[in-house]
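Action item from last week, closing it out:
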Amino acid sequence: MQEIFERVLPGITPGEKERRELKIIADLLLERINSFAQEFQVKGVLVGSAARDTWISGEHDIDLFILFPGTANREILETTGLDIARKVLFDADKIEERYAEHPYLHGMMNNYKIDVVPCFNIKDAKNIKSAVDRTPHHNNFVKRYIKTYEKDVRLAKQFLKTAGIYGSELRTHGFSGYLTELLIIHYSSFTALLEASSGWKPCITIDIKSHATHKHDNPLVVIDPTDPGRNVAAALSLDNVCRFIDIARNFLKNPCIEYFSKPAHKFVYREEIEQLLHRRGTELICITFHKPCIVEDTLYPQLEKMRNAVEKLLTRHDFRIINSNYIVLNADIYLIFELFETKLPKVKKHIGPPVWSKDNAEKFKVKYHKNPGNLSYIYIKDGKYTLNIQRVHTTPTSLFQSELLTCGLGKHITQTIKQDGFLTLSDHELFAIEHPEFRTFLYHLLTHKQDS
């Protein structure tokens, strides 16, 4: 394994030129923040992997925090903090206001992604006033304990990235950078982390400082060394924990360099998708609509909510689902379901109350006596009144047109669909979309093949 690590590290470790470029930009921006120190009693701090020397070559992210006095009020933090951030990034490109618990600024400078985030300077992380106040404490802890482990952190991050399970964003539900660093600090090496994780079971708890104050019900629990009540791994999904366990076992059994490098995306031809679907004997239906103008961490929870809501809607109307997923492609969203069939018979078996439930039985008979949608007389089956009635919706398209907006899609998605509408696409219409990323998405939907 060590030989593989030695081959991987040169490609993921920043060289002197790259380090120098990052330092020049970070120092310039810190100097700008600190120029406001006397006027607003603020201080600039570089945080994140760039500050801790755990960043991967080619990943140009600079996270700068503007520390306001802990006694400042939130309104001053938000308004003055953004004003300072705008002045700091006055010559940056693609500036946009983003929102965590409060607003911050994101921009690009010389191909570096810059985040300038106002926060409160709180001495004890247990007394934070906003979630981002923890970050400087995380920074201090990791910088103190990470020395000599930087290579292991880089290997772990690259391993997770290749598997597609790195990143704490709500679209990923993966391992955050801070979580990865804590795991390396706890286990002391990447190899030890792999060996330990291959035997993990749900709800395993890691408490580096042995100071937890709460019990957490998550697949992986890593108590924040700076906040005894917080689980750093709370956003990590069960499936991604299990994927890590699986690839750790596979790598230990058969170590190879491919676990650290994503292969080039396979070009997928239309005929491949058509043949896959034909072999499976299933059909696809898609809801597509314009992407709302909101940040990713707001969009993806709403997409997940929409997927769950539409799955329940389809199931209630007897459409059987095998797979579902969504993709954001440029300005449009595609939510796709693989169904056993997209055309149901007009007849539907409707089961009523048990015969011995006298009051309910009478109501059922009154309601369905001479009902124009009846396709049979009322009969008794397994002790219950039963009736064959006419199905209201025989296709998902009809169902979506009638009920999509009633099933709970999330605020911004609902607004967008009400304003711009949506389309339903059949599998043949989906095959006609030639975008390579979309074809790859369909291929993965039908095969469950991981990028790694």
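Closing note: The CA atoms of residues 22 and 37 lie 23 Å apart.
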